[in-house]
Amino acid sequence: MAIPSRFKINHGDVFPHGAYVVSEVEPVRDWEKSSAGRPVQQLDKESGLPVWAVSVLDADPDARKDAKTVTVKISASHQPVPPEAMTGMPFRPVEFEGLTVTPYVAENGSRPRVAYSLRATGMRAPQTGAARPAPKAARADAA
């Protein structure tokens, strides 16, 4: 049985209330190949493409304080460009394409926990009019 280390998942399953870019898109440094004066960008083990990272705010009002901002790594040949900010606001709504999740055990002293690494193949502005599940509260009210 071949179990992949990365599991495909839809953007709406991870961010049902939406997601917002809150940092610049930056190259991920390969610490094993880099030296003091020569940084080397990490390459994705599966695709061989350079890896970029962006911090994202999860708009879920029920998300724990320590889980409100997550990092999504993007494998792409060129530096991804975040969508435009909302008019009059500093927020940049985003949807990730080719999203995968990798569970791992975070060694947290005497309290290890299961954590998740998010990767994508691209990002774009949210698709308007696309069929998306309604937020939890809206679904509950409809019942």
Automatic annotation (TrEMBL):
Superkingdom of source: Bacteria
Q: Where is this region: Disordered?
A: 123-143
Protein name per UniProt: Plasmid replication, integration and excision activator
Q: Which organism is it from?
A: Pseudonocardia hispaniensis
